[in-house]
Amino acid sequence: MQDRERDTARTRRVVLDAAAKVVGTHGSGASVDAIARAAGVSKGGLLHHFRSRDQLLLALAEDLAEQFAAAVYAAVDPRDHAPGRLVRGYVNATFDDLLDESRVPEQAVLAATLSNVPGVAEVLRRDKQRWKEAFDADKLHPQRVLLITRAADGAAIAGLYEGGSDPGELEHARRLLLALSRHDGPLLDL
């Protein structure tokens, strides 16, 4: 029984990884056949794990949200107990991904590509709420959280529109955002 569960989890992982690559290249119109081929499984095998193309793409959106959350929490310095530690993890996870030349800014591309898939808007809404609650518990002033996270998110997609990113500029932006996260209180009295 345990081997079957492991095989199921392994196959699902292979299919989700293949779907991320195929959808990242061909858009949300990518066929189940193309994803199955990329995963090295039959179309029937893929549909055994995901009943439909939309279910697969919805699972992909959920998986991307979970992968990013795991990367953020892994990027939190365990010695850091000051307000904003989670925001700093968010910044570091985002910029680590952007500075990894072997990766395309997958999260941003796929989120945009999948946004028209039924159910994905709800996944994104729940993910936004999760981050809001986590950042509220992080105790950094909401003005700082808003500015820092939106700037990190903007950096994640800027390279797509600018034809690439300058690693030196990205590191400078990271340092600026991290510095903003190390102070508490409002940025402006509004």
UniProtKB/TrEMBL annotation:
DNA-binding region, residues: 31-50
Protein name: TetR/AcrR family transcriptional regulator
Stored PANTHER family: HTH-TYPE TRANSCRIPTIONAL REGULATOR BETI (PTHR30055:SF234), HTH-TYPE TRANSCRIPTIONAL REGULATOR RUTR (PTHR30055)
Keyword Protein transport: no
Keywords: DNA-binding, Transcription, Transcription regulation
Cell cycle recorded as keyword: no
A single GO molecular function term of this UniProt record: DNA-binding transcription factor activity
Originating species: Micromonospora peucetia
Pfam families reported for this sequence: TetR_C_28, TetR_N
Gene3D superfamilies: Tetracycline Repressor, domain 2
Domain HTH tetR-type, chain residue ranges per copy: 9-68
